[in-house]
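Dear colleagues,

As part of the handover before I leave the project, I'm documenting each prediction I ran so the next person doesn't have to rerun anything. This entry is a single chain, and its sequence is reproduced below.
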Amino acid sequence: RYLCQSNVLPSHIKITVTRQTLFEDSYHQVMRLPAYELRRRLYIIFRGEEGLDYGGVSREWFFLLSHEVLNPMYCLFEYANKNNYSLQINPASYVNPDHLLYFKFIGRFIAMALYHGRFIYSGFTMPFYKRMLNKKLTMKDIESIDPEFYNSLVWIHENNIDECGLEMYFSVDFEILGQVIHHELKEAGDKIRVDEANKEEYLRLMTEWRMTRGIEDQTKAIF
């Protein structure tokens, strides 16, 4: 917090929005500015409600806007699973043609919240936070977002694959919006069978794939 305050730029930036079009207004106002300008003190104005902003209005703006990113119209995020309401990037966000620009905006918005010490409504999954901190993701991180998938990896880890007679290869299929997508975990993965000797590599590659499945471009746009 001290480092943020010591690096703040003089003067302020004015962001003027309408409550009815909060997301779009905020997007256009924030994205038109160079990133370094967002270190200036924020002066938020809701049209028709002009007044002095001593911090309360900007706090409300952060809170309302962080809630708005959940709007299904934008298709940007989804809940981790039916029992975990933490947010993760929606692999199907590409149905919105502007999704990568919106993710870049959200990355700026999160950075602004951290820099200015503001609360945001939404809570993200632990893998999301670990990516933000550039921390290594592990197989254990899958448990909170996809318990069934995690348990299947644990079973492979704890059992002798050669004795089970399973035909698994270094490839995987997954479905997005009814479309089945085939992915090779490594070059020629379709032809490489998983056995006891190479299963640790398989688990590592499968973990990396599950954490980035369909969201590589979105993640780059945010971070």
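The radius of gyration is 21 Å. The mean pLDDT is 91.

All the best with the project,
I.
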